[in-house]
Write a structure and sequence with these properties.
The protein has 615 residues and is an alpha+beta fold. The chain folds into two domains: 5-183, Beta-galactosidase, Chain A, domain 5 (Distorted Sandwich), CATH 2.70.98; 252-609, Glycosyltransferase. It is 31% helix and 21% strand. The protein is built from 13 helices and 25 strands.
Length: 615
């Protein structure tokens, strides 16, 4: 049985990432990229599906503490046992030729008997590799993939796994390295662990030091009064969230994955299990905004460039998500041989939502690129013609029902949130012409924008309750409506927005936490049941902060941050009854929404919060 989701730590090299449990077991790792097949998949099954554990033999008697070294993803796990104390340091070095795991075991006090178990399973645990001993290591190969384990003592083969024991006393230090490389190339040479450790710590710390998390000098009207105090209170959470976004971003392509995992359930034992190891336009756009808001102007260029490359080509072919390098073919399939996390099946790889029409994504892209332009990020010559082509695509699909931000698998609807994001797309087109002198049919865009506003005001509002609705003609609400003020469609204190918040509080809050929508109404075509969605709750914090409900904002914010694990990581959802995280982890959207909420409370407002121009 895998550990609770919150018991896992992330380590990564900005190409891929591993999840390390409190028990010293690496239960998830895909090589060589985030979206490659796994070599460790115990997270979605049992140890038989692949893992690498180094831990005290008397683990059940150990007191476990862990931390990241400073602003890095170098993980230290300390095991304090009756016989002594040992520390395991885990990292994936930055700058190595191929993905590499380093595990350093040190004796800190007394004498600790340690065990090591290595279970290698390629291809999502479908392929058993051929393992052979070579001078100074073990090589495991299957098809195009190979792994080389170095260290002393090496584990010994037994029942298609490798096991071993060793003792570390005070002052002892043992290093183990596991390197991936293409099986058709020579094996990589030995690793200078000390140099890799220093290089990796310095790289993460240098990146972290570029952050500007200071509060703005002027808070929003009606917002949090004690901006500086709020900034100090949430600075660490914002800082770690920015680091998570960097860790989930591929160093070479600039694509950001929505999460490092696939098929961690949105409801334990249920079928809402999706693969999030791909790059959503929505997440890339929001990441660009977060980076610009916190001093990462240069880094934002990589995200901007990925966006432009991803949407290049015929606008009729635009997708909501892509592979890390912009790959378009992401077919969804089920891995029947994996039993799933906590028995939650099916386990899926690929994502069928890639073929959906989601009308909101062009708006998100246009909003982010407008923000980059206003933030002084230089735009290449093809950027504006490409945005004009996107607006042509948005114009050609006006009025078409879509699957919405939540990627429903039921009947497409005219979702109000999608209509607002389409409005935002044309609004930013108008801004490009009026504010920046760019060429375009501004009169037509202005007409479409204004017609969309009139349509939303008429069809996307429950006129009895005077609140916005989930989709045209419905009476229910959707937590995605909390984004309407974020893109300037209405003010946070617009009476309809305040009525929408009241409706969300009445209909979507259970145990003090916001759900995305009422799943029992069948709008998504799936069996009902899921846990509160963390990003939606952070959006509510932002809404509270911007409308003077500071105490409510702080109360909810503090509760949400208490759901983070001991390393500051958040998954997609939270189970308040079971008091545990749920869904894929760490979730980029959760951390993006956390940053926005903290900024709203501190008065550190990104330019996105400026009211829309109405030229």
């Amino acid at each position: 049985m895998p550990l609770p989701i919150e018991d896992y730590a992330l380590i990564g090299d900005c190409r891929t990432a591993a999840l390390v449990g409190r028990d010293g077991s690496i239960d998830w790792l895909c090589l060589p990229r985030f979206d490659s097949a796994s070599v460790f998949a115990a997270l979605l099954g049992t140890p038989e599906h692949g893992r690498w554990q180094i831990a005290p033999a008397a683990l059940e008697e150990a007191r476990v503490q862990r931390r990241y070294r400073g602003d890095t993803f170098v993980l230290e796990t300390t095991f304090e046992t009756p016989a002594g104390t040992a520390r395991v340091t885990d990292l994936m070095p930055i700058g190595s030729d191929y993905p590499l795991l380093i595990r350093r075991v040190e004796g800190l006090a007394g004498s600790v008997r340690m065990t090591q178990e290595l279970v290698l399973r390629f291809g999502y645990a479908e392929a058993l590799p051929w393992v052979r001993r070579v001078d100074g290591g073990l090589i495991a190969a299957a098809g195009p993939d190979a792994l080389l384990l170095r260290g002393d003592p090496l584990p010994v083969a037994a029942d298609h796994r490798h096991r071993g024991e060793f003792t570390v006393a005070d002052g002892d230090r043992l290093d183990f390295t596991l390197a991936w490389y293409p099986s058709y190339r020579p094996a990589p040479g030995p690793v200078d662990v000390d140099a890799a450790l220093v290089r990796t710590e310095d790289w993460w710390q240098d990146w972290s030091d570029k952050s500007d998390c200071g509060p703005g000098t002027t808070g929003p009207a009606g917002g949090a009064a004690a901006g500086g105090e709020a900034h100090d209170r949430y600075a660490a959470a914002v800082h770690r969230s920015l680091l998570v976004l960097r860790a989930l971003t591929h160093a070479e392509t600039g694509g950001i994955v929505a999460a490092a995992t696939t098929s961690l359930p949105e409801a334990f034992g249920g079928p809402r299990n999706w693969d999030y190891r791909y790059s959503w336009l929505r997440d890339a756009a929001l990441t660009l905004e977060a980076l610009l808001a916190h001093g990462y102007s240069a880094e934002a260029v990589a995200w901007r460039d990925w966006l432009l490359r991803a949407v290049a080509g015929d606008p009729e072919d635009i997708q909501i998500m892509y592979g890390l390098a912009g790959e378009r073919d992401l077919p969804e399939r089920e891995l029947s041989w994996l039993p799933g996390y906590a028995g939650s099946t099916p386990v899926r790889v690929g994502n069928g939502a890639v073929d959906q029409f989601q009308a909101d994504v062009i708006g998100e892209v246009m909003v982010a690129l407008d923000l980059a332009r206003r933030g002084g990020v230089p735009h290449p010559g093809h950027a504006w013609p490409l945005q004009r082509a996107l607006l042509d695509r948005a114009r050609s699909t006006l009025g078409r029902p879509d699957s919405g931000i939540w990627e429903i698998r039921g009947e497409p609807r005219r979702f109000t949130h999608s209509a607002v994001m389409t409005w935002a797309a044309f609004d930013r087109g108008v801004r490009g012409v009026v504010d920046h002198g760019l060429p375009g049919p501004v009169d037509e865009w202005r007409r479409i924008r204004d017609d969309l506003r009139a349509e939303i005001d008429e069809s996307g509002v429950d006129h009895d309750r005077r609140c916005f609705t989930q989709y045209y003609g419905s009476h229910g609400v959707d937590a995605a409506l909390l984004q309407l003020p974020q893109v300037g469609f209405c003010a946070p204190d617009d009476p309809r927005m305040l009525a929408t918040v009241t409706a969300i509080e009445t209909e979507l809050i259970n145990d003090g936490l916001v759900h995305r929508y009422r799943t029992e109404r069948g709008v998504d075509g799936l069996p009902p049941g899921e846990y509160p969605f963390l990003a939606c709750n952070f959006w509510l914090v932002e809404q509270y902060a911007l409308t003077g409900r500071t105490a409510d904002a702080v109360t909810l914010m503090d509760r949400l941050l208490s759901f983070a694990n001991d390393l500051g990581l958040l998954s997609e959802e939270y189970d308040p009854a079971g008091r545990r995280q749920a869904g894929n982890t760490p979730q980029a959207l959760s951390h993006l929404a956390l940053i926005r909420a903290a900024d709203a409370l501190s008065g550190h407002q990104a330019p996105l919060h400026q009211p829309s121009c109405q030229n």
